[in-house]
Batch of 2 targets.
Target 1
Amino acid sequence: MENNNDQLPLWEVFIQKGGSPFKHEGSIHASDKNMALQNARDIYTRRGEGRLIWVVPSDSIAATTVEEEAEFFDPADDKIYRHPTFYKMPEGAKNI
Amino acid sequence: MTTKIELYNFVLRLADDNLILAQRLAEWCSCGPILEEDLAMTNISLDLLGQAEDFYEYASELNGEKSEDELAFLRSEREYYNHLLVEQPNGDFACTMLRQMLYSTYAKFLYEALLNSRDEKLVALATKGLKEVKYHFRHSSEWIIRFGKGTKESNERTKNALVELWRFTSDLFEMNETDKVLITSGISFSLRDIYPLWKAEISNVLEEAGLEIPNSENNIIGGINGIHTEYLGHLLSEMQFLQRAYPGAKW
């Protein structure tokens, strides 16, 4: 990601609450890892939301684009047999 | 209890340090160098305000007459016992962070020592405050290292701040009659004990930042006896305005 203003580099913030998986909360600016963790703590956990924090430089994240949406995701739309509800339970089976 | 008056003065000293520094940091609100740091400084300010509130509550209990709001907002300059360091103006961001680092290091060793106090309430408040001041130390000391190793300008600004603020550092370890009585009764301890710890910690941070403790004098004292620099009065006039203009005003 190009940093063409006077802001520090961008980081994505993931926070784990209780035993749940890490969840993306938003982004912050910071010049290094320690600053990124502290800024994330100050901005996203002020009301006791967090137990653990991950920060990742935004430009380290590989992401799909809106243009790629059709080829990435449309093929999944007409494959109803990929859903477990497509199958009838065989007689006598307790589960599949 | 014969030490009641001394304990009251001592608790007030702790409360005042926290309140005045909280007020100073709050001046950065909406003026921070970046949004993240704006929030970080006001977070620290709120931590300190919370600690001040707890100490004023205890002081009010010891005093038996004045409420915590009266203690916080309706005393005059000479009745405040905060240290000179915390009332110094914010200056630039380097100055604010250096002031924070010098104070948070002091508060860290002070609270650690108070964990051994014979006064249970003080032990409880020190335990609570310790977690916060450790974080404040971490945040501010990392900035000092970044400044020292950063650009020529950040290095110079930090050096200037050191010269400016170092003058008020021995004030942190001054003691008066209050301390004498509380040390004897096991409630407090000699601040001379934590001075070497404080200095060693400050030296570590400065060394990592490629900076040095200034050789200049640091013997401007008076805070704990109510003798202040010219900055406290101005700070109080802003902070106390509302309570003085609208007595008893509530949020």
Note: The helical segments of chain A are 33-44, 69-73.
Target 2
Amino acid sequence: MATSPSNRDLQPDLGETINVSEAHAAMKDAPTAVGREKSLRENGMEAVSLWLILVSAVVVLVAGSVMGQGGSFFGYGELVKDDYMRGKSPVKEEVPLQPIPALTLLQKEGQKQYAACASCHQTSGAGGGGFPPLAGSEWVTGNTEQLAMIIHNGVGGPIEVAGNSYSGNMGAIGANFGPKELAAVMTFIRTSWGNNASLVTPQMAEEALKISKARGGSPTTAEELKKNHDKMLPGDTLDPDTLLDPETWEPIPVAE
Amino acid sequence: MAETTSTTEPNDVALRASIDRSLRHPVMFFFTSGAVWLALAIVLGLIASAKKHFPELLDCLSFVDAGRVDAAHLSALIYGWGVQAAFGMIIWLMARLSRKECSNAGTILAVGHLWNLFVMIGVLSIMAGKGSGIAYMEFPIFIWPLLIFCYLAITIWSLVQFQVRDAGHVYVSQWYLLAGLLWFPWLAVSAFLFVFVFEGHPLMATAIASWFKGSLFFLFFLPTALASAYYLAPKVTGRPVYSYNLALFGFWALACLGPWAGMQKLVGAPIPQFLPYMGAAAMVLILIPAISVGLNILKTVYGRQEIVAESPSLRFTSSGIVLFVAYGFLSFFLHTVPAMKMTQFSYSGYGLDILGLYGVFSLCAFGAIYFIVPRITGREWLSRRFISWHFFFSLYGVASIVICAVVGGITQGQGIEDVSQPFATMASRASQYGWGVTIAWAFLLFANLFFCLHLLLMWARLGRRSSHPTLLKGHHAESPHGPEGEIDNIGSASA
Amino acid sequence: MDHTRDNPLKRFTAFWIAILLVASFGIACLIVRPITHARVDSAVKAAADDRRAIRAQIDSAQEQKINRTSLDKALQSQAQSLLTSKPTPVKPQAASQ
């Protein structure tokens, strides 16, 4: 061993030494971090353990089962798993919709449709400002066919309602009504604001639509209505308390 | 083979010293800036985790909205900390193993600053709301070509060093480093082109993005961590790696399985069904390389528990490898079909990702940092306590996150599957686990603040000048080297 | 020139081979892309065409059902009568219905 270098030369901090080769020489003996390091050897030749191979085999089996769930390998056409079916909902059977009395159901739907009429006839059915009232109107509470013609085709010219004469034009506001909507709005105005007339069923409304179609689409007049349409629409009357299915509007069969 | 420590050739010491000296600036820069990004990423992770169960937190600040802060957290963790720590490790390991000095330290350092700049722009863009919304590729589109360019400018020198290495056997770590160095650009270029550039079916872009997410860990972070572990375990203990054949097997198993992983996140999506199931099968099979590598490295250190207990680098590295085996098992169980059904839209996937990124990669990176930094700065670590706290809080933190996330995820899954209950029931069940995850992030923040502080002190050349390493066990009162920190006893050490 | 393994030529070639290798990843993507793209594009377009056909069917069916002319007439006549009628104050009514 050469004479031990002075402590200053053995400082691990190379930055303070000017002479690089001296520093390197000092490094060879100095137990700095770099000097402490051991060399790498990588020649361990232990055999691969059998347990590893067995565990790998189990893992490969499980992976294979996962892969098998994916359908055919590189099958780009299959976007959904084979025989995929949405599971049955574990929630118990939905409670079916409760049946509703006919009057309530028709009035509810009719009130919705009436929004189109309320701008002129008011939500109270009182009319005003040149528009005839519906409350207490004989056209409303009278025969259903003329009412249906008025709603579906409109009415023009002078018309007498509840003792007053009105001359204006009503458009065919209900031109796009189907049988259910027509029946509903007619029932609504016939049974609101003190009116107490019979219900109009969807079957009656269908007959009305047929009659209206056969007539053509032009607005009616009071004379025509009195002459041609002053009758009730054909169809079975409906008791206001009959329970209807809220979706189909058919009466619920009542057990005897 | 002889298991005694080899005598160190004097030339080796000089060579090692010159290599360390040549690349001290870029490597120290990468580690230090990575550590700062890690601290930032953990703060963001804390907020992100809190937002999942306590969304009113900081809701006045729009830049920490739940979606933004989560994306910013993962981006900072991966590109700010993960890739930079990987750069430091790769550059140093490849230089040491090729026995070549680094002649481009200046370039690497400059490009490293650029990398930091771009990541910062990216994270700020995410928090301003301009993120792309694609997991692990959140940065705005223009950042990616810049990052890929920086990656090449930083790592190409390591590839060149490998090519001009001294003739001789190629060590295990070098396989992993070379593979990782080439896999990353393949992943990044392919994912960037198919997700952002090419017009195509958006579902396939999603599939490729999730492939990138899975493969990034297996084909870049994991090989770097394993390269470091295969280097440090034999070096610190002085024993040879347990089995060369097992190392070979583990490497090729990872190489074959890694690229398939990733699409398992999309089970049930309207993409060709074999894709996510192949991904799930690959995740199940990852247990095989995990066990192989775990067996190999843990058997290497097996007889030397006292060294594992003492040496910070070996302790972190072996814990990282143990957690890698745990990762393999967790992945195995989480990717069987019933488990996937239960945990697909839950915390569990996040727990597995954090186990990989923090538990495996980061712990191995810490081990490498604790080994490398004394060598490139010429100083020893300042405080044994800082290192121990860093270790224990990291371990507690990552274990808590993973357990809370996985168990919480399964509970969430049960809640989601139970259609008779409203969603809120499941969410309130999961929030308890969310609190657990948030508290665990607080532990990790605590651990990494110490680490960051310690590393910054070392960077500022305030480390301990000593011949004696900072070890985790008590002082060796009767050591021939004398008590720790005593530099006047250098003479006696060279006996 | 130094003829050991480590010489400037070897470094130069190693550098450019690495660049080429990474570029080849991009080139491979660019090559693969048009080969598979055609199928993808037409698949997406075919699905879109189906969707558009269904949408056109629905639109025409709705057009047929809705009686635009009579609706227009009704609204017109209503508008006319509103225009010509004299606005009168509406007296507050008793509670309706």
Note: DSSP finds nine helices and five strands in chain A.
